[in-house]
DNA sequence: ATCTTTCCCACCTAGGTGTGAACC
DNA sequence: ATGGTTCACACCTAGGTGGGAAAG
């Protein structure tokens, strides 16, 4: 009785999936969430900060998935693929190619690969809500695990992979979203990018308020009380 | 090549486990972490706050697990079992039985069951580090999912279950730790319990500082600058 | 000089504490 | 009155922002 209750708890999500989901992956579909926001950044060439200890991405990569087998087990991976063979440079308000890429990231183990922390999990789990990669951290140093190592001033294209985890793993899908391309930087180059990040990232609220209160000026006022 | 690299990434943790772990569950062992701390609370009868929106446990239940099959898939569940048939009352500095229990929690779906958020996962995952149940939330209201519903002024004993998730689920182990028994309350009854919670829970630091700075008195000083 | 990276910082978000008064 | 619960609150932990000076 108690055992039945326990197993029923474990299977809860799974059963819900079985009722609703698709039994095969034939109609697998992956959609990028918040594509409008990504496009705003894409239009002016997106930049992502890399730091020694790792920096989150903004915008955050979110996808909604459908068409998996609800009761099969999958892992979701994010792969940061070099978008070209160039090193880039920001001059006169524009990005320009500046020499060959340094191939450091290539062939270096898990270099640019991030495994979603919910992995592995049932198809039902991945499909019940949008999958959010808000914990990915980008770094320029080979570091403690779990972080994605990128080369600064190189362009990357995030790629999503879905792997079916069974007795034999098999790659189910890999999708790229052009909208999410970005150039890795250690400090923002284009102030339009900075402005967008501040505008939409809640964690940068401090700088948004400063601009709102004091649109022309710069710098926060010292406490002027006597 | 890229596919190989990806699958290798997914299997990384798994392979690490295969090398070190035990291929069967014959020698399964589960150990409670921070047992000394739990015992301090147990000696004076532990209490856990329940609130409408859910309250974390302190101490946090942590276990280290060994002896699983590294490449099999398991889920870990926490089950809050009524420790007796009584409702309890704190009078004259002591807990005393006060009438029959209200059987609300029993038979009510997932009432007292919490699934560890890393579930399901490989044996290797559960064994590579202590498993922490710091996200469990205890509530006295039937609520949004994921929270554990308990009856205030009733005594509970946390029980850990390990379920092997396969084509057919099977219960691998259930363990209880006497040290982790507690009485659910909406407000602390025994001030010794409060003192221990403040002493060891970093989130209650504010009250620790107040006592340290002003051991005899009560209340924080207003800013006395002119 | 110039370009890139690093570090510390004030300022946020997000949310976990027990308190004490109010509520029932 | 009594005993249990709820709520707003000040005060923390934990950690995510870009800025700007300094360093390489």
Automatic annotation (TrEMBL), chains A, B:
A Gene Ontology molecular function term of the record: RNA polymerase II cis-regulatory region sequence-specific DNA binding
Domain of life according to the entry: Eukaryota
Key words of the record: DNA-binding, Nucleus, Transcription, Transcription regulation
Major site of localization recorded for this protein: nucleus
Alphabetical GO biological process terms: cell fate specification; heart morphogenesis; mesoderm formation; positive regulation of DNA-templated transcription
Localization per record: Nucleus
T-box domain residues: 32-209
Any one Gene Ontology cellular component term annotated for this protein: nucleus
Protein name: T-box domain-containing protein
Range covered out of full length: 23 to 248 of 397
